Each structure stands twice: as structure tokens, then as C-alpha cells.
Automatic annotation (TrEMBL):
Signal peptide: none annotated. It comes from the Bacteria. This is Type II secretion system protein. Keywords: Membrane, Transmembrane, Transmembrane helix. NCBIfam families: IV_pilin_GFxxxE (TIGR02532).
Length: 238
């Protein structure tokens, strides 16, 4: 008489099959756009962290420059800006890139990029590097991963609700569309979507993937958008 499998043997076989299926089943890898979005969100939050810990308000006048710090202190706030540049003698690779910096040099006019390493934030993940991709006049000690077209094959970025390609944070961590202000705060403390409460950054990559980032004006909170105005789970959205 042929011996049948015992219950313990059957359970063992099922467990082994389950382990093999889990190990061999292909896992879904993040798309190029999603990887880029997660990195940008981390750096937006770091920009806000710098602003919260570096109050730019000043009551004195810098006589060595053409602009009064007491009058224009709000132009010095920490920001993150994006640019789509062509290759030049300083930067051999063009495309979309971004930088995290404070605006403190010269006449305080914001050129959309750091005025050298003195303005760029230090990269907390890479000693000796700054949180900026390569720009004209800033091509040493830069972070290659901030060139989104080179690293993540990003082909287009849409800034819905911003009006400008960047975000500025005040000392309370509130977010503003980047731009030249005629007065501190004023009516600039808003985005143009949902009655000014948030802005959306949409990334489109070469592999056809699309990822969206939400930035909320009042709190400055940023996250990768999952569904309509929903944020990605914390495990994937640090």
C-alpha cells in the first residue's frame, strides 16, 4: 500500500513553494520619474530645514554692498530652483537640474542658481560636495545626481501653481513661489492651485513614466503624490 503524505509534509512543501515564489517573483522597480521625485522631495524638505534654522531677518545695513540687508533681508532666504540648461564650457552635459542655496551675494538679485559655492548648501550625504548640479560659474564640488536629465532621464518638468521654477522658504517653514518680491511676504505667500494652498511639480522621464510632487504653502510640507492630493506611503516618501 502506497504511503500518503502527512499533514506536516504537505505544510512543509507549501512553505517551500511560497518561499521560492517570493524569491523568484519579479519586483516592481521604481520608475525614473519616481526615483527623481523622491530625491527632490528629500531636498525640498532639507531646504525647509535650512530655512527654519537660519532666520535671515536683519536690522543692520551692509555698507559694503549695493543693497541694504535691513531693507532686503527677505531676498536672502533659502530656496530650491530648477533650470533646463544647454551644455557649455563649464557644464558638458545639459538638461534639467536644480540647486539648493541662499541668496547672499552681490546685489541680492536671484539669478536662478547659486553665485558660487558660497551660496550653495552643503550636501549632507557627500562630504565636500554642494547641493547643486553644474552651472556656469559653478562646476566644482557639485552633485551629479542633481542633474535630473543625466541621472534620471527627465525630459520635462511642469510647475503647476508656481508660476516660477522654484520654491523659497521663510523662517517659519512656509513655502512661496520663487520670484522677486516687492515686500516681505505680502501676497506672495500662496500658490495658484486650490485657492493658493498648494503647488504641483510634474516630472516626465524618457521611459514614459510620470511622477508628481505636492508642496503645501502654509506648512511647506512636500510629498510624492500618490492619488488625487494624496501622499505616497511614508516608507517610500521619507
Amino acid at each position: 500500500m502506497k504511503k500518503a503524505f502527512t499533514l506536516v509534509e504537505l505544510i512543509f512543501v507549501v512553505v517551500v513553494i511560497g518561499i521560492l515564489a517570493f524569491a523568484l517573483w519579479p519586483t516592481k522597480q521604481p520608475t525614473q520619474a519616481l526615483e527623481a521625485a523622491r530625491q527632490i522631495v528629500a531636498h525640498i524638505r532639507y531646504t525647509q530645514h535650512l530655512a527654519l534654522n537660519d532666520d535671515k531677518f536683519a536690522t543692520h545695513t551692509d555698507t559694503g554692498g549695493t543693497s541694504s540687508i535691513a531693507k532686503d533681508w527677505y531676498k536672502r532666504l533659502w530656496r530650491i530652483t530648477f533650470s533646463n540648461l544647454t551644455a557649455d564650457k563649464d557644464c558638458k552635459i545639459g538638461g534639467w537640474r536644480y540647486a539648493v542655496y541662499q541668496n547672499i551675494a552681490g546685489d541680492l538679485s536671484d539669478k536662478g542658481q547659486p553665485n558660487g559655492t558660497i551660496e550653495a548648501a552643503r550636501n549632507p550625504a557627500q562630504a565636500g560636495k554642494v547641493l547643486s548640479a553644474c552651472y556656469s560659474g559653478l562646476s566644482t564640488n557639485t552633485s551629479d545626481e542633481l542633474n535630473l536629465s543625466q541621472t534620471y532621464k527627465i525630459e520635462n518638468i511642469d510647475f503647476s501653481g508656481f508660476g516660477t521654477q522654484g520654491i523659497i522658504f521663510d523662517e517659519l517653514g512656509r513655502a512661496y513661489p520663487r520670484g522677486e518680491w516687492d515686500a516681505p511676504y505680502g501676497n506672495k505667500h500662496k500658490f495658484s492651485q486650490d485657492n493658493g494652498s498648494f503647488g504641483r511639480i510634474t516630472l516626465s522621464a524618457k521611459d514614459g513614466s510620470v511622477a508628481k510632487i505636492l508642496v503645501f504653502a502654509e506648512t511647506g510640507y512636500a510629498c510624492v503624490e500618490n492619488v488625487d492630493l494624496g501622499c505616497e506611503a511614508p516608507a517610500n516618501n521619507p
